[in-house]
Design brief:
heterodimer; A: mainly alpha; 9 helices; globular; B: alpha+beta
Chain lengths: 192, 239
């Protein structure tokens, strides 16, 4: 039998991780660490902090693989959701507020929340970008500021000068609309 | 907050964009509302698609993670609940059991270790069924049919090229709370416990390292045993 896990599904990889197969974790890392690192660095604007998040995310998968449920989504989505939560926690910590302001200043110099600045190395990413462009501006900006900026919807409302209720509605309706756009593009998410 | 007000927050919750107080309220709501939970899961899946792509992970980062794994290796728990084949110590069996004799594993001396979770959650069981179906459709997988002497009872196991196996025991009877099914493999001429599967297993994973020649299922006291003295309920050899 081959030792490699390169051909097995993500769900099977996690089962192997639960049986302490370090090679299975290495394969999960090979498949998803780039996306995890990319999201963490985008949110935090800090290479060292992003590396810490990557380390934490994969150690959590190793120590607690049962948290991943293949019926609730892909492994990449699970890892990215954890990455996002931890990065946002780091951003919102008191000591990071100044760093966030500095990061935002750098972003402004680099072109703000332009998703096209990111490295999109998958065809899926390209489709998502196209689908994002089809959202109404208000929904797209609210989602991007919340997701990639790490702001609460209240903070987004404050920065945009919009009512809080409007922003939370735009985020929810925007996510639903994005899901529909993705379905049109052939990317199915969740059950109907 | 009313249910409608909580529903309105589900999108922001999925993006980690709530204040702490609101987050707690939404989580309490999600705990009792499957529809809202499903909506959040879908929002999260959509949101994480936005993060697809990324950059190459920095060099040396995996090495640091791998070092942490060694220093944080989980220790076996106090109760013999499930068998961990990957980190087990392999000792030769007192009596080597050949493939032809795999119908019984009396007095096989096998040392086992313990995994952390004796009973996977229901969602994990469904996930394993999915893994089983995927493995069955993999042309490179090895399939093993286990049966009793008169072939009135059967189970199917499938082992993928990487050594990850899944066995479906859905047709077997419930043994009750005092007993458990236990799976054994004949690997490199040793009898290795591959897992304590519980009294009424559905689809269960196991891992194989080495040259698997046979699988044997026994009925043991709850918690499993390190060396079986029971006759095989089912057995099957690798073709």
């Amino acid at each position: 039998m081959r030792d490699s896990f390169s051909d097995v599904s993500d769900a099977a990889l996690v089962l192997a991780i639960a049986r302490y197969h370090q090679e299975a974790l290495a394969e999960a890392y090979r498949r998803h660490a780039g996306a995890v690192f990319g999201l963490a660095r985008r949110l935090l604007g800090d290479q060292a902090l992003a590396e810490e998040i990557v380390q934490e995310v994969f150690l959590r998968l190793w120590n607690d693989p049962d948290r991943f449920d293949p019926l609730r989504g892909s492994l990449r989505s699970y890892l990215l959701a954890h990455t996002h939560g931890r990065a946002v926690d780091a951003l919102r910590s008191e000591g990071s507020r100044r760093a966030r302001e500095e990061r935002d200043a750098r972003r402004t110099a680099e072109g703000g929340y332009d998703v096209e600045h990111e490295v999109w190395d998958l065809a899926t990413a390209d489709q998502v970008r196209r689908s994002m462009r089809r959202l109404p501006d208000g929904e797209r900006v609210a989602i991007e500021m919340a997701y990639f900026g790490g702001y609460t919807y209240r903070e987004v409302a404050g920065r945009l000068g919009e009512p809080e209720g409007t922003i939370k509605s735009r985020i929810r309706s925007g996510l639903k609309r994005l899901r529909s756009e993705l379905a049109i593009a052939g990317i199915s998410v969740g059950e109907d | 907050m009313t249910p409608d007000e909580l529903d309105a927050l589900l999108g922001a919750y999925a993006l980690d964009a709530l204040d702490e107080d609101e987050r707690r309220e939404v989580e309490a709501y999600l705990a009792v509302n499957p529809r809202a939970r499903a909506e959040v899961e879908t929002h999260r899946e959509v949101a994480t698609l936005m993060a697809f792509g990324g950059a190459p992970a920095p060099e040396g980062l995996w090495d640091r993670i791998a070092e942490s794994l060694e220093s944080r290796a989980p220790q076996p728990g106090p109760e013999l609940a499930r068998v961990l084949p990957v980190r087990r110590r392999r000792w030769p069996t007192a009596v080597l059991i050949g493939v032809a004799a795999a119908a019984a594993i009396a007095a096989a001396a096998v040392t086992v270790a313990v995994v952390r979770d004796p009973s996977p959650p229901p969602s994990a069981i469904d996930g394993m069924a999915q893994v089983f179906d995927q493995a069955m459709s993999d042309p490179d997988s090895t399939r093993i049919v286990l049966s009793n002497e008169d072939s009135s009872q059967r189970a199917v196991a499938v082992v993928q090229p990487g050594g990850l196996g899944v066995i479906s025991l859905r047709s077997l009877p419930d043994l009750g709370p005092e007993r458990t099914y236990q799976l054994w493999g004949v690997i490199d001429e040793e009898v290795i416990s591959l897992g304590v599967l519980g009294p009424r297993p559905g689809v269960e994973p196991f891992t194989v390292e080495g040259d698997l020649t046979a699988l044997v299922l026994t009925d043991e006291a709850a918690g499993g045993v390190t060396a079986s003295e029971q006759p095989a309920l089912l057995s099957g050899t690798v073709a």
